[in-house]
């Protein structure tokens, strides 16, 4: 066989196989490549979307943390303010109670002082009756001379 015929037959066979591959195989290969490119593009888009979502979630978490810190600070401030108010209120109540107790003690002291004066006046009147009876040499009836004794006690009390 002649080498020229072999080359021509091989050329025809090559072009026939190339044409069949281009006609029947190539569209499937191109479709597979395009499908693969599409999946890769979708994956990259999903990854980029995931990164954006992660960044948004971090920002949102930071905002929530800042808000929580602000709320906590506000609650602490309110608690401090309330404790100061409660302390002031307790001081006021204690002061009012102290004033009430002092007023009660003063009133009781005044009552006791009045009682002591009355007792002293009675004792002075009894001493005056006893002294007068010794001076007169006879016993004086305290009931009969009550007005006189009361006047005497008032004069003794005045000084």
UniProtKB/TrEMBL annotation:
Pfam families: ATP-synt_B
Membrane topology: Single-pass membrane protein
GO MF term set: proton-transporting ATP synthase activity, rotational mechanism; proton-transporting ATPase activity, rotational mechanism
Superkingdom to which the source organism belongs: Bacteria
GO cellular component: endomembrane system; plasma membrane; proton-transporting ATP synthase complex
Primary localisation category: membrane
Segments passing through the bilayer: 6-26
Localisation: Cell membrane; Endomembrane system
Summary of the function given for this chain in its UniProt record: Component of the F(0) channel, it forms part of the peripheral stalk, linking F(1) to F(0). The b'-subunit is a diverged and duplicated form of b found in plants and photosynthetic bacteria.
Similarity remark: Belongs to the ATPase B chain family.
Name by which UniProt lists this protein: ATP synthase subunit b
Lineage start: Bacteria, Pseudomonadati, Pseudomonadota, Gammaproteobacteria, Steroidobacterales
């Amino acid at each position: 066989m002649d080498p020229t015929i072999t080359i021509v037959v091989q050329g025809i066979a090559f072009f026939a196989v190339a044409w069949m591959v281009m006609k029947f195989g190539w569209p499937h290969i191109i479709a597979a490549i395009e499908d693969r490119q599409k999946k890769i593009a979708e994956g990259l888009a999903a990854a980029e979307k995931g990164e954006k979502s992660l960044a948004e979630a971090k920002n949102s978490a930071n905002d929530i943390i800042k808000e929580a810190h602000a709320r906590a600070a506000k609650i602490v401030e309110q608690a401090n303010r309330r404790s100061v108010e409660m302390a002031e209120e307790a001081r006021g109540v204690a002061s009012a109670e102290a004033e009430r107790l002092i007023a009660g003690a003063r009133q009781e002291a005044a009552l006791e002082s009045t009682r002591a004066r009355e007792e002293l006046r009675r004792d002075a009147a009894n001493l005056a009756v006893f002294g007068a009876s010794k001076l007169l040499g006879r016993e004086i009836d305290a009931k009969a001379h009550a007005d006189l004794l009361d006047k005497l006690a008032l004069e003794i009390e005045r000084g």
